Amino acid sequence: MRKLSQALVITFALAAAAGAHAQSAVMVGGQSMLPTRDIVDNAVNSADHTTLVAAVKAAGLVDTLKGKGPFTVFAPTNAAFAKLPAGTVDTLVKPESKATLTKILTYHVVPGKYDFAALSDEIKKQNGKAQLPTASGGKLSFAMNGMHNIVVMDEGGNSANISTYDVVQSNGVINVIDTVLMPK
Fold it and tell me: What Pfam families does the record tag this protein with (predicted)?
């Protein structure tokens, strides 16, 4: 009887641990990104993405990114936006620049759910360099950089490293990048 109760305790402990792992969150910008929340509800909590969130609001894309999806967002950090020439972000968030801002932001969104495994599979299927269409109508290219890193390239040849992969959302996935990518 004692062995049976020990086995039950171990079974329940393993089941609880598995359930906790399934609901575990990735930390981004000092905050937990919960898989039960949508892209916007998670992003607003990240201290590393305040510029991106302000830009999404200025472009009027909040409702879109709260939509059903699935979406894959390649989310530039504040440091990525800081690499842009001085005054660029201030100009882009002005109402008269809304169309340009929208095009840049939707260039960072790929329809579908592309975590590390899915991106790696696409790269293998497309002989080492994958291309995926963006929500803006452009294309992003992807290539492996070593065994555990994927580089994202825009149509102008600029590249970004993915610093945090697989931030699962209720309506997609976020992959954090270190550079703002620009459409043609």
Answer: Fasciclin
For strands 159-169 and 31-33, give the pairing: unpaired
| pLDDT tens digit sequence for 1-43 | 444 344 333 333 333 333 333 445 675 656 666 677 888 887 8
The alpha carbons of the chain give a radius of gyration, in whole angstroms, of: 19
**Phi, psi (rounded to 5 degrees) for 118:** -70, -40
The domain defined by 26-177 folds into: FAS1 domain (2.30.180)
- The domain limits of the chain are 26-177
How far is it, in rounded angstroms, from Cα 143 to Cα 148? 11
C-alpha to C-alpha distance for 75 and 53, rounded to whole angstroms: 10
